[in-house]
Design brief:
alpha/beta, six-stranded parallel β-sheet, 8 helices, 32% helix
Amino acid sequence: MTRLPRESDAPRTVAPEGDDADGPRAVLLAGDGAEEVRGALTMLLPPELLEAGSAQVAAMLREARTGTLRLPAGASTIDLFVESRIRPAHLVVCGANAFGQALVEAARPLGLRITLCDHRPAFTDPTAFPGAEVVRAWPHRFLAAAAERGDLDARSMVCVLTHDPKVDVPVLATALRLDIAYVGAMGSRRSDRDRRTALREAGVDEEALSRLRSPIGLDLGAESPAEVAIAILAEILAVRAERRTVEPLRDGSGPLHARTATSG
């Protein structure tokens, strides 16, 4: 991250340390954790901008975005250039069906790495899922192998849309043992109860089960595959933003675009 000079600043070398608090400075950041980001920004921002700046920078890093972030500072502004070299977050969609197809399509603009996984040869035509890597394998085996080779991290998301216990239970048991951001599964409330019972019998403990987002998605009244995809992505965005509850913007307060950055 680099604090860009204002027009009134004389040119100078960008460095981690500097005598002038208003001069351009740069810091390197190894991760996107809240404390790491806040600690790095103490070198670049005044205390009153740390909270807003940290939230926006962390969001950019989570989404692997590069750009210029403009923060209001009294009658002036402070510009930060954030260069992300983090690979995109990985979304794994299990289930080559209409819901999987809609979710892949809806997720494409989010800049994620998307993998569609299904074990059935007749349904895994790559042309049906543009923008996704299509893998023909049992999802639990694919997930275990992906974790082993480092293709999953704390930002990764797994959505199980198969409606088949012989697929759902093994892949969810695998996913819930991983340190990933989101695990969701489609199904009715009755299916969810039966699935949780099966997962307990498979050795998944209550703490891990509490991370399962099932039935998947926010309650938006969604019915069609396209609507369900939006409800799923809305829940994923809320989880990534650490929103325990979601409410209409009109019922809230504060800035509407706390996570917005101008493209650089």
